[in-house]
Design goal:
Layout (H helix, E strand, L loop, with lengths): L1 E5 L6 H11 L6 E9 L4 E6 L2 H12 L7 E3 L5 H13 L5 E3 L14 H11 L5 E2 L3 H8 L11 H10 L4 E4 L9 E7 L4 E6 L9 H14 L4 H17 L29 H6 L5
Parallel strand pairs: 1-2, 1-4, 4-5, 5-6, 6-7
Antiparallel strand pairs: 2-3, 7-8, 8-9
Helix pairs in contact: 1-7, 2-3, 3-4, 5-6, 7-8
This protein binds 3-hydroxy-5-(hydroxymethyl)-2-methylisonicotinaldehyde.
């Protein structure tokens, strides 16, 4: 079950989650927390749903369908944080993957200091895997903005784990390194890093894709470290196959495996199907 904001461009948000989860063979239940007005260049406006509406969407489904993971993206309000924290507390055996969306890819703010503080207090203690980029990790780990620059990512992770997350995957896209280094930190003191080629261009929805893939693979029963590795490999493939449908950013192609390799569009040819190529 993904609880996230709508991005009508299909680049990020709940649409990115739905595409990713479907691509990995899951059936996504989608609970909308907010709607945005945006295109591939940026967010023009957004409206956060009333918490009762978020709660009712989720609870109605949970009475009907067994859920194997929660994936949370843009939340939008402190009231929505409280609703989601209560959901997670009521379903303690369902892993919770939180992508702490504090701003859109083009820099529009979705969260102020109060919302960040509520995230820290109410939701982080219930999280199985937190997937911040390095900017979000610093903001979440430091209540004092003056401190943000002096903290290493290892120290941020230590603090986020101390707040109660089981695992923290810090993404290094915004760091000044030749390759992108993503590191998974865990409560048992383990840290595993994977390096990725830094691709040229700017992508809309790569973070949503990665977090949704982690959630989908965990929902299918994979252990966290394996799910995180495989989700990164999947996301990297979606970025290699990204396309630019409008005038703004590139969008990761979560359905890359379904396209005809030569034309880049349309269904796979029969011979490819006979050869048995399969998703992910
Ligand atoms: O990429 C983060 C993100 C998440 N959710 C929604 C968004 C965005 C970025 O624009 O619009 C709804």
């Amino acid at each position: 079950m993904t609880l996230a904001g709508s991005d009508p461009s299909g680049g990020a948000g709940i649409q990115a989650d739905i595409l990713t989860l479907a691509s990995l063979g899951c059936h996504p239940l989608s609970v909308i927390t907010a709607i945005t007005v945006q295109d591939t260049a940026g967010v023009n406006d957004f409206l956060v749903l009333e918490a009762d509406w978020v709660n009712d969407q989720a609870r109605f489904l949970l009475e009907d369908i067994p859920v194997t993971a929660f994936k949370v993206g843009m939340i939008g309000s402190i009231e929505n944080i409280a609703i989601i924290a209560q959901l997670a507390a009521d379903y303690p055996d369902v892993p919770l993957i939180l992508d702490p969306v504090l701003a859109s890819g083009s820099g529009d703010e979705f969260a102020d200091d109060e919302l960040i503080s509520a995230l820290r207090d109410m939701l982080l203690p219930l999280v199985t895997v937190l997937t911040p980029n390095s900017v979000e990790a610093r903001r979440l780990a430091c209540s004092d903005p003056d401190e943000e620059d002096s903290l290493t990512l290892d120290q941020c992770a230590e603090r986020l784990l101390a707040l109660g997350c089981d695992h923290v995957l810090i993404k290094g896209t915004h760091e000044n390194t030749r390759e992108v280094i993503n590191t998974l930190y865990s409560q048992d003191g383990q840290a595993q890093s994977l390096n990725w080629e830094r691709l040229a261009g700017s992508y809309h929805g790569s973070g949503c894709t990665l977090a949704a893939a982690v959630a989908g693979l965990i929902a299918c029963g994979m252990a966290v470290p394996e799910a995180v590795n495989e989700a990164q490999e999947y996301t990297y493939q979606t970025l290699l196959n990204a396309f630019r449908p409008g005038m703004g950013q590139f969008i990761p192609d979560r359905m890359f495996w379904a396209r005809d390799e030569e034309s880049g569009t349309g269904p796979r040819s029969q011979s490819e199907e006979e050869a048995g190529s399969s998703p992910a």
